[in-house]
From TrEMBL:
One of its GO terms (molecular function) is L,L-diaminopimelate aminotransferase activity. This is Aminotransferase. It is an enzyme of class 2 (transferase). Gene3D superfamilies: Aspartate Aminotransferase, domain 1, Type I PLP-dependent aspartate aminotransferase-like (Major domain). Residues 32-379 form the Aminotransferase class I/classII large domain. SUPFAM superfamilies: PLP-dependent transferases. Pfam families: Aminotran_1_2. Its cofactor is pyridoxal 5'-phosphate. Belongs to the class-I pyridoxal-phosphate-dependent aminotransferase family. Its EC number is 2.6.1.-. Keywords: Aminotransferase, Transferase.
Length: 403
């Protein structure tokens, strides 16, 4: 068969696959790899949430199909969360929907609203589904380079002036994966004002709403008056409650977008397993000390990592939020690019990271380190990195000979 599939042709090979294969080979050779490559929480959800899941699963009546919009109790719990955390009113009946993780919601929202050739503004570097959800749906992506020196509003203005058709939607993700950048409410107010004027939808991903470490507390775009006219926001149970494998997230805000997502989902799924949804209600409505513990855990690791790397001669900005450090390549290795540097780090320091180029072309020059190894192993990792930095000249000489 020689026919190729149109959508598959638009999905490039996964950049991380190369590092993952080397990681697997190193592990097979019994090397102890300290793995900062993924964003997978390493702790379980709170005990009472797991207890609720197992308790509800005993009920013989909860094993049938659930509802694709999510059970009413969970939509009400999301609405209550918005009220107490952000002072935002969300109607549980038509302004929020439960998704099978926010990733599924983002992908199906893209399917719901995109016509082939529509222009979507997506951050670059970004969490891959932000751009690829829309690419799969047939959109053309206009990348917005991320970083402290770029202005989103400038990029929106340029896009409105130069793209034909004008953009359908813009994707925002703060606190950002992978860059860990954060934005305040004034930023959102400016974007909402612009997008309302130009009739551009906003899709905001607030997966790291609760994963912050210092004084800055991430706001919701829905706090901006009038935001609901054009914006939806995704939330996730994955990081807040360490429930990544459970696949529970939410999309809230603009009724038309929520309804469009609901329509597509009503055709493609039956919703998350009911006992998981009931347990998610227990997480949202129950004691919240697990969130402080989660923050303390990641903050402790962050401090060990950032201080340790600085002592090793690698200066990495301390992330104020998310579970990632976004590290510019050390000067001596910068010319190699992020993929080659990641491979050398694995070979010489037994440390796995995610090469920045895997998050988009503007991610080149960086690697992402997930705060998913405990403090002791993080300490071991920085020790290994220090040795590697001290031997940089010899390592580079050997690397050049091999090429
Ligand atoms: C920015 C961002 N959005 C969404 C997700 C996926 O969340 P979920 O587990 O709810 O699909 C992640 C996971 O790493 C993420 O970093």
């Amino acid at each position: 068969m020689v026919q190729e599939f149109h959508r598959i042709k638009r999905l490039p090979p996964y950049v991380f696959a190369e590092v993952n294969a080397l990681k697997a080979a190193a592990r097979a050779a019994k090397r102890d790899i300290i793995d900062f490559g993924m964003g997978n929480p390493d702790q379980p959800p709170p005990r009472h949430v797991i207890d609720k899941l197992t308790e509800v699963a005993q009920n013989p009546r909860v094993h049938g199909y659930s509802t694709s919009r999510g059970i009413p109790g969970l939509r009400k719990a999301v609405s209550a969360y918005y009220q107490r955390r952000f002072g935002v009113e969300i109607d549980p009946n038509n302004e929020t929907i439960v998704t099978i993780g926010s990733k599924e919601g983002l992908a199906n929202l893209a399917q719901a609203i995109t016509s082939p050739g529509d222009i979507i503004l997506a951050p670059n570097p970004s969490y891959p589904i932000h751009a690829f959800g829309f690419i799969i749906a047939g959109a053309a992506i206009r990348s917005m380079p991320m970083g402290p020196d770029t202005s989103i509003i400038d990029q929106l203005e340029k896009a409105v002036r130069h793209s034909v058709p004008k953009p359908l939607a813009v994707i925002l993700n703060y606190p950002s994966n992978p860059t860990a950048e954060v934005k305040d409410l004034d930023f959102y107010a400016e974007i909402v004002d612009f997008c309302r004027k130009h009739e551009i939808y906003i899709i905001s991903d607030l997966a790291y709403a609760e994963v912050y470490f210092d004084d800055f507390v991430p706001p919701s775009i829905l706090q901006v008056p009038g935001a609901k006219d054009i914006a939806v926001e995704f939330l996730s149970m994955s990081k807040t409650y360490s429930m990544a494998g459970w696949r529970v997230g939410f999309c809230s805000g603009n009724q038309k977008l929520v309804a469009a997502l609901g329509r597509v989902k009503s055709y493609v799924d039956y919703g998350a397993f009911t006992p998981m949804q009931v347990a998610a209600v227990a997480a949202l409505n129950g004691p919240q000390d697990c969130i402080d513990e989660m923050r303390d855990r990641y903050r402790g690791r962050r401090d060990v990592l950032i201080k340790g790397l600085a002592a090793a001669g690698w200066n990495v900005p301390s992330p104020p939020a998310t579970m990632f450090a976004w590290a510019p390549l050390p000067e001596k290795f910068a010319h190699l690019g992020s993929l080659e540097f990641s491979k050398l780090l694995l070979e010489h320091a037994n440390v796995a990271v995610a090469p920045g180029v895997g998050f988009g072309e503007y991610g080149e020059g960086f690697v992402r380190l997930g705060l998913v190894e405990n403090e002791q192993r993080t300490r071991q990792a920085v020790k290994n990195v220090k040795t590697m930095m001290q031997n940089a000249d010899a390592i580079l000489e050997q690397y050049n000979k091999r090429k």
